Amino acid sequence: MTGPHTYLANLSGARATLWCYLIWYSVIAIRHFDPSLRLWLTSFGLSVIIGVALVLNAEAGRHGKPDKWQRFRFFLAPFCVSSFAALVKDKGFVLIISPHWQDVALGTLGCASFLSLVRLARRRSRAASARPREL
């Protein structure tokens, strides 16, 4: 087995959580989209400044250089945080929770569906590895 199934079957809890963050962000960003170029350019600028700082911090550590996906997340996270804050400003959110039940339902459903796929991939992977191999 290779591809998405293998990726999901081997996904750590931390990475599954990061995917849920992205799902939640995507629901809110789509449902509360603001076409303001200024908002998106500011978020991009902040992501560059903070992303570079995060990469430098990681490289100064004792565990080697971050891989390409870590570097990508170092830039994506500040972009998502800054744009999320701008999109929900003065809209009644409590932390990241929308006052609209539809937002909460879609975000929860999206994350629950993703985690169900992860569980299913893990079960199928364990079942495949438990089967006796033919010679």
Task: Characterize the structure shown.
The chain is an all-alpha fold. Helix content is 74%, strand content 0%. The protein is built from five helices and no strands. The protein has helices at residues 4-9, 13-31, 37-60, 68-88, 101-130. Helix 2 (13-31) packs parallel to helix 4, helix 2 (13-31) packs antiparallel against helix 5 and helix 3 packs antiparallel against helix 4 (68-88). The longest helix has 30 residues, at 101-130. The relative contact order is 0.17. The mean pLDDT is 93.
Q: How much of the polypeptide forms β-strand, as a percent range?
A: under 5%
* Element order: H for helix, E for strand: HHHHH
Say how many strands there are. 0
Task: Give the helix tally.
Answer: 5
- Structural classification: mainly alpha
Question: How would you describe the shape?
Answer: flat
Largest sheet: none
Residue windows where pLDDT falls under 50 for at least 5 positions:
none
Calculate the terminal CA-CA distance, rounded to whole Å.
18 Å
Helix content: over 70%
Rounded radius of gyration (Å): 19 Å
Provide the residue-averaged pLDDT.
93
Task: Provide key terms for this protein.
mainly alpha, flat
Topology:
Layout: H1 4-9, H2 13-31, H3 37-60, H4 68-88, H5 101-130
Summed up:
This protein is an all-alpha fold. It has helices at residues 4-9, 13-31, 37-60, 68-88, 101-130.
